[in-house]
Amino acid sequence: MYKQKTKETDRSVIEFIEAVENPKKREDAYKLLDIFTETTGYEAKMWGPSIIGFGSYHYKYDSGHEGDAPLVGFSPRKAKHSLYFAPGETKREELLNQFGKHTTGKACVYINKVSDIDLDVLKKLIRESVVFLREKYPSK
């Protein structure tokens, strides 16, 4: 049976950010914290050891696999910041074309630094992800 690894924890978001070694990455993490908090209206929570998430939703796939995840989030990784938005959200690709310097993975968008991206587009990506996930996985 699959056991979900990334769960909401009681760890301190501020302590986690303060532990980021690179001062510029730490400064950018605080900027992202402010933007995600302001845009979502949710309090930041730690998910697993290294993801700062905002809000949550419960998903259940056709396979029967289910769990909880943050609506959006980020992680100040050593190499790049990982930004977590809803996979499958229909406006994502269009917005990413206007986003600025980034790369993408299966579920993540990676940026080197906040100054590389358009903050208005970041806010739109955050809002679109939250709306998409709230509609796809409505709370009971």
Polypeptide structure, described:
It is a single chain. The chain contains 4 helices and 8 strands, in the order ααββββββαββα. It is of the alpha+beta class. It has a single domain, classed as Aspartate Aminotransferase, domain 1, CATH 3.90.1150.200. The strands form 2 sheets. Strands 1-2-5-6-8-7 form a 6-stranded antiparallel sheet. Strands 3-4 form a two-stranded antiparallel sheet. Helix 2 crosses helix 4. The protein is globular, with a radius of gyration of 15 Å. The protein starts with 12 loop residues before the first helix and ends with a helix.
Key features?
140 residues; alpha+beta; Aspartate Aminotransferase, domain 1; two-stranded antiparallel ribbon; 4 helices; 8 strands; 34% helix
Provide the fold topology:
Elements: H1 13-18, H2 23-40, E1 44-47, E2 51-54, E3 57-60, E4 66-69, E5 72-76, E6 81-84, H3 92-96, E7 103-104, E8 108-111, H4 119-136
Antiparallel strand pairs: 1-2, 2-5, 3-4, 5-6, 6-8, 7-8
Helix pairs in contact: 2-4
**What is the percent of helical residues?**
25-40%
- Oligomeric form of this entry? single chain
Our count of helices gives: 4
CATH top level label:
Alpha Beta
* Overall domain count: 1
Q: What gyration radius follows from the Cα positions, in whole Å?
A: 15 Å
CATH topology: Aspartate Aminotransferase, domain 1
Let me know the average pLDDT: 92
- What class, by secondary structure content? alpha+beta
Identify the strand order in the major beta sheet. 1-2-5-6-8-7
Number of DSSP strand runs: 8
Largest sheet: 6 strands, antiparallel
